[in-house]
Each structure stands twice: as C-alpha cells, then as structure tokens.
Amino acid sequence: EIADRDWSSDVCSSDLAHDAGEEVMRTTLGLVRRNIRVYYRDRGQVVLSLIAPLILLLLYVLFLGNLQVDTLEDSLPEASAEQVDAFVYTWVFSGMVMITTVTTGLSALNTFVEDRVFGRFKDFRVSPINSVQLITGYLVASCLIAFVMSMVVFAAGLVVVSMAYDSFPGWRNVFLSVGYAALMCLGFSSLSALMVTFVRTSGAFTSLSVIVGTIIGFLAGAYIPEGTMTKGVVHALNVLPFSQSAMLLREPLAGGALTDLTEGLPGAHETIAEYFGFKLMIGSMSVTNGIAVLVLVAMTIVCGGLGAFRMRRSIN
Residue 206, class by beta-carbon neighbours within 10 Å (0-12 exposed, 13-18 middle, 19+ buried)? Predict the structure, then answer.
C-alpha cells in the first residue's frame, strides 16, 4: 500500500499550503508597511503625537524644574546642585518615555479611523485581504510606531542626561527600560485600539488625541510628584496602568541619581522615592514591578482581544 500511494499529490498540497501561508504573510506585512508609511507621511500627526512629552519637558525646563530643584535643595542641603539637577531631570526623562508609548500608539491608529470614515473598508472587502490581516496590520503598525518613537525619545533623553548631568543609568538598566517600554507599547496600543473603535469621525479622533495628550502626564504622575497630592487622589491614580508604568521606568532610569542624591542621609532615600512615585501604594497594598507587568500583560490580552473584535465588526 505504501508503494502504491500517490506521494505527488501530498507534495503538491504541501507546496500549495506553504505558498498560501507565504502570501498571507506578505499581504499582512504589506498592510503593516502601508500603515507605518501613512503615519510618517503626515508630519503634523507625528508632531501631534509628541506634544505630550514635549509639554512635560517644557514645563520642567521653564517652570516646574526650578520649583522641584529648590524644594530638594531646601530639604537636602548636603546634596550638591548637580546631584539635584541630575535627579530631577532623569525623573522627568522617565516620564517622557512612558507618555510617548501612549500618545504615539494612539496617533498611529488614525489610519484605522480614516479608513473607516472614507469607506476604504469596502475596497478591502473586494480584494483578497481578509479582516484578520487588516486588523493585524493596524495593531502591529501601532505597536511598532509606538516603540520606534519611544526609543527615539529614550535615546535623545539618554544622551542629554548623560552629557549634561553625567548620569548614565548603566547598560543593564538601559536594556531593562527598553523591555519595559516594549511591553508598554503592546499594552497601550491594545488599549488605544479598543478606544478608537468608538470613534467615528476624524474630528472626534483629533479631540481624543488632544484629551489623552493633555491628561496622560497627570494620570502618570509625571507633571507633579505624587507627594504633592492628597492620599485619595494618589491611591486613585495608582490603580491606573499609567502611573504603574511610569513607576517601572523610574527606578532603572532615575534610581542611580536618587541614590547619589541621598547618599549618607538616613531615611532620605525611602522618603523621596515615595514622594516622587518610585514606590506606589493602593491603600495598604504596595504596587510591585511584578503587579505592574501583569497589569500590562492583562491589558494587552483583554483590550487587544476586545479591540480586534470590535474592529472586525466595523470592517465587516
């Protein structure tokens, strides 16, 4: 029976399946490239997606930075001005990176909104592109754009704080921060994918982007330290994934500067770490790095799944 079997038909079927799989992959990658090109082609959109981290930087360069520096110098007279500056601006740097992972991923999904508004889904439906490929193209492009843009901000900030304040966090902390940022891109792009399924006009998407860009720094505790807020507000903010994500980046990026700042001052490290959001509390529960990572993973799965489901309904 083995000798009589027609092996050629099995080989042909295998080749056809392999070719079909390659075609699906090529089409999906083509959609990802198309969505990325659409995002970078609109320079105004790229700038808009970076407004929030730029606002944070300008606030600290022009106003809030001097306030924080003066407060720390009064509280820690033993610390040098260089140590205080290094800590404040590495702390700001970590907030900028976190905010970028949110705003750029959301901005990248403007392509989905425009395709919906201008009826391009009808063109996709008559082409050999299925809804799964379309959705994958939007989600992957959003994650990649968020990661690339956050790494641009990360690299620029790393160069500035290293040259201006001689505060390099170390390569281990750099790679750890990159890993955390990648996870944030996945989580917040998934959340953004769910949010944009409720947006039906370009104007509504612009309003959503402006609102998110305006409040995200506050929700992450990046505009002002959590120690300046009431406990009720702090605990409410610490429930959200934004402040938890900012916490993940603060220790590897600004932890070294905090250690230098408080060296030889008993109790100062713990007090300032809590004041500036290195350690988060929800009631009597401490938010650990493990909890923050699990929240981002859960958000990726749940929001990504719901977003993909609602996208599919919009496309079909």
Answer: middle
Positions of the chain with pLDDT under 70:
1-21
Distances (CA, A) of 171 to 175, 245, 250, 291: 6, 20, 15, 24
Q: Which two tokens stand for residue 225?
A: 């330290």
**Phi, psi dihedrals of residue 282, rounded to the nearest 5°:** -120, 100
**Three-state DSSP class for 265?**
coil
pLDDT attached to residue 7: 45
Q: Which residues contact 293 (CB under 8 A, 6 or more apart)?
A: 180, 183, 248
Q: If DSSP codes are grouped into helix, strand and coil, which group holds residue 68?
A: helix
pLDDT score for 15: 56
Return the pLDDT at 146: 96
Q: CA angle, corner 237, sides to 249 and 105, nearest 5?
A: 55
Residues in the chain: 316
Q: Distance between CA 89 and CA 92 in Å, rounded?
A: 5
Distance CA 99, CA 302 (A): 21
Cβ contact 59:223 at 8 Å: yes
Q: Are strands 285-287 and 280-282 parallel, antiparallel or unpaired?
A: antiparallel
One-letter amino acid of 123: D
Q: Are 291 and 238 in contact (CB under 8 A)?
A: no
Assess contact for 261 and 167: CB atoms under 8 A.
no
pLDDT value at position 12?
56
pLDDT confidence of residue 26? 85
